[in-house]
Write a structure and sequence with these properties.
The protein is an alpha+beta fold and about 250 residues long. Helices cover about 15% and strands about 35% of the residues. Strands 1, 2, 3, 4, 5, 6, 7, 8, 9, 10, 11 and 12 form a 12-stranded mixed β-sheet that branches. The protein is globular, with a radius of gyration of 19 Å.
Amino acid sequence: MLGAMIFQTKKSNINLCLCVMEPLEILYIDNHIIAVNKKVSDIVQGDKTGDTPLSEHIKNYLKVTFNKPGEVFLGVTHRIDRPTTGAILFARTSKALTRLNEMFKDKEAIKKTYWALVKNPPKEQEGRLTHFLVKDTVKNKSRVCNASVVGAKEAILEYRLIGKSDTYYLLEVQLLTGRHHQIRAQLAAIGCPIKGDLKYGFPRSNPDGGISLHARCIELIHPIQKTPLRIVASVPDDSLWKYFETHAK
């Protein structure tokens, strides 16, 4: 059941705050898992802002669509930053959640591919970046540091230049480790801050307040069915993104 489908819940008297829910773009759904295309404004899980998280919107959608009584189970298996868009996967059963948690710990079990728009091209068209990052919890930011710094963690990614326009470049990025703000910090460290990412050195914000980093694809073996699964998220509805989606190599 691959491909994007738009679902909108109808107004209801059920006390679930459904009336203010944004449409969900469902990328994949079965009895065990559900994947959606996250928007810039979405937070994956509740935080100090108090904003309703994407996980609650999905629970509401499942409750209404499948007429489920009582509490709906939904397990958060991984997260992407709020200003980032793209594919994110949730578990619909505890069995799937347990197995997906194990798979996400094994970096070879799940392949996550990101697309990033940058103003400055990297020196090499493809390569592997290895840095040590330390998280600044006060500023909610990661910075490149020496390996000897307390709390430093090794961060590794691979990138490939797959498109260019008159003013921007499209990088395909695969994470080999999962660190806080890893792609943002590592690309900024080589002089390629992501478009719109003020926190990591880009000079201007994007109109929607997000950054041009998109979780393009998740590839894995289904945790229950044991079949190969490839989930692709369409890019945001933006002329620059649409250009690159058409012209990516």
